[in-house]
Amino acid sequence: MVVYNFAAGPAMMPAPVVTQIQAELPSLGGSGMSIMEVSHRAAAFGVIITQAETRLRQLMAIPDHYAVLFMQGGGTGQFAAAPLNLATHHRRIAVLDSGQWASRAAAEAARLGIPAEVLATTKATHYRHLPKLPAVPADTYDYLHLCLNNTVEGTAFHHLPPVTGTPLVGDMSSNILAEHYDVNDFGLIFAGAQKNLGPAGVTVVIVRRDLLQDVAPVPSMLDYHLFDQKKSLYNTPPVFAIYALNLVLQWVEEQGGVAEMQRRNRIKANKLYAFLDQSPVFANLVTKADRSLTNVVFNTGSEALDQAVVAQAATKGLMNLKGHRSVGGLRASLYNAMPLAGVDALIDFLHDFETHL
Ligand SMILES: Cc1ncc(COP(=O)(O)O)c(C=O)c1O
């Protein structure tokens, strides 16, 4: 049975990458040693981490005055690292509350004693559309935090809200390399790898170097300047995760880059949304213009029926369709590695399900 994994993260990896990892796992490049045994100071790993950085720079057109860092601690670690490294002047940040992950970022900053002001929120309407950013007062906040793709609620900023004079911090955990953004619009971008970039364990950070001046000491493992100086080798990095990330970046490159990923992702998502919009049973309640390309949330309106969908789908190899535990319902995550055939199989199943009710 062909299996399609619709999990939100850790998520489906490109099949050729998994096959290559399997083939190379016992002996990297004929060395007789597994990548799991290779030192982070070994020349072989030096090649891998340099390739990964070069590939990411090319794929996202990252200018030289941005550092590319491979850190640990996931997106959640960055909820602390961003304010610790960047909220150094005004000592306060602004947040556009578009969902659970943006609100978690605000809470983490506040926990560290850095006030996080929510400038707009759509919480009252279950985050089914994106909040509209009011005018951001100049010289007030060190940055504005934005979650570009709201993994739980299924919305995404396809266009950035207009902000001038306040750096943007973008959480791209669930749509990095899935749709195009201009890195120049951001002071900082971060993403945990486990959705679109590879296995869990490595976190990608892209940060404008001029923002890293005058930073008071922060914990070394969260220190952007230190990681930049040490080329992400301050301590032992997640060697295997960076190796796998490099292979995923190579795969994206071979497929045609971010533009091609975005083209495919639009086709996949539009097909599923079109099905849901005409279905008598299933519904997606997100405002159309704000719909995510990578996380499609939907439901039947009945918890019992939703559960039946998840269980029956699994018997057909359509795995992990359960919505996030905080919102329930159903969710299909369609990251770069999900082929159109997976979406077609899902639509066929859902159609079959509703006609046999
Ligand atoms: C948009 C977004 N930000 C942050 C996180 C937290 O990531 P992590 O589990 O790597 O800390 C997630 C996890 O799903 C996410 O979807």
Describe the protein's architecture and organization.
By secondary structure, the protein is of the alpha/beta class. It has 2 domains: about 5-15 and about 255-355, Aspartate Aminotransferase, domain 1 (Alpha-Beta Complex); about 15-255, Type I PLP-dependent aspartate aminotransferase-like (Major domain) (Aspartate Aminotransferase, domain 2), CATH 3.40.640. The protein is built from 9 helices and 13 strands. Helix 3 (about 75-85) packs across helix 4 and helix 6 (about 240-255) crosses helix 7 (about 255-280). The longest helix has 22 residues, at about 255-280. It starts with a strand and ends with a helix. It binds pyridoxal-5'-phosphate (PLP). Pyridoxal-5'-phosphate binds near residues 9, 101 and 151. Pyridoxal-5'-phosphate binds near residues 74, 174 and 192.
What's this model, at a glance?
The chain is of the alpha/beta class. Helix content is 36%, strand content 15%. Strand 6 (149-150) and strand 7 (155-156) form a beta hairpin.
